[in-house]
Amino acid sequence: MLKGVHLTLLVGPVVAVPSPQPVVDALTSAQVTTSSGQRSGFQLSFTVAKGSLLETTLLPAGYFDPGIRVILMATVNGIPNVLMDGIVTRQDMAPSNDVGASTVTVTGEDVSVMMDLIEIPGFPFPALPDFARVEVIVAKYTLFGLTPLVIPSALVDVPIPIAEIPSQSGTDLAYVNELARKAGYVFYVDSGPVPGVNVAYWGPEIRIGVPQPALNVNMDAETNVESLSFGFDGLSQEQVVVFIQEPISKIPLPIPIPSISLLKPPLALKPAPKLRLKFLTDTAKLNPVKAALVGLAEAAGGADAVTGNGQLDVLRYGRVLKARGLVGVRGAGSSYDGLYFVKSVTHQIKPGEYKQSFQLAREGLISITPVVPS
After folding, report:
1. Given strand 186-191, what is the order of strands in its sheet?
2. Whole-angstrom distance, CA of residue 291 vs CA of residue 281
3. Which among 52, 58, 233, 299 has the fewest CB atoms less than 10 Å away?
4. Among positive and negative, which fits the CA dihedral 207, 43, 15, 351?
5. What is the topology classification, in CATH, of domain 212-230+305-367?
6. To the nearest whole number, what is the mean pLDDT of the chain?
7. pLDDT in tens, 223-273
8. Geometric angle at alpha carbon 222, from 220 and 225, rounded to 5°
9. Whole-angstrom distance, CA of residue 33 vs CA of residue 353
10. 181: helix, coil or strand?
11. How would CATH label the architecture of 5-114?
């Protein structure tokens, strides 16, 4: 691999252990994609030579069969980064007449895929608000290192058992995602910070914290990205309006809902105008708390107006760019410089090469801060 980059591969049925050196040597490429609010995925490719350990022993023994746990960690300049803790879902074999050209490709998803295997329809959760239901569900997967990080909704609605008993529909993952959608939240599993440990996050997109070193573009010798472009979608923003029924006259009253979240502060000084108007008429039949929750969820789930797409070389950047965090941009001009939320990152690792493709997002133009960390 690259000088300054060391890959560690761990494989096992439930508890993953370091792979034999011949397996690590046979790894020709690794791709890992991490996105906010979505399940992460990975794909590993290996060369399979005749008489090799993979061909004669490991593959027949089910070393990379579906259901096997795989952990991939990249140590860059002495800093370990757990890129993926996942489960193999598919194996592809491509034999070749050329010596040493046969390949095995292993594809999988993060450990949250284990939450999506068994449907549990009708399981009751009496007197439990949504965040408590999520904690109960995630606790069943501690065997895979899942630790819940759950943030209660802005307005907590506790169901009264004599009036309503919420029940699950579908798999654990489908139900948790549905609860997140209704609250305007996201759910994802973040691998690390150490191998075998995973954080199951249920809450709003967190856009606070220490930003990662800036992405520099059009800055001559200080440029550390290979490409970076931006787009501004003027039709992405919506003004959400809910209707609440006045209890005496029964007249529905329209109430505009702002996009508010303590964990999602603005990143731009000039937010995009809300050109669209969206009325949620079904909320008139709900109580005021539930109607407000529906409105807040709809407003929070809106798309970001400004997006950026680019690619960088990890060694030139000096570290691994991580998704689901903040990063600064410099050299793109006064409209597009500043802090961004990293929506997704794809790691592409080959012998002699470690690159990342990434997507950035924020709600408008012009930075809220005069400088960003370099």
Report:
1. 146-150, 198-203, 186-191
2. 10
3. 233
4. negative
5. Phage tail proteins - horseshoe like beta roll fold (2.30.300)
6. 89
7. 999 999 999 998 888 888 887 876 777 777 888 877 766 567 889 999 988
8. 90
9. 17
10. helix
11. Roll (2.30)
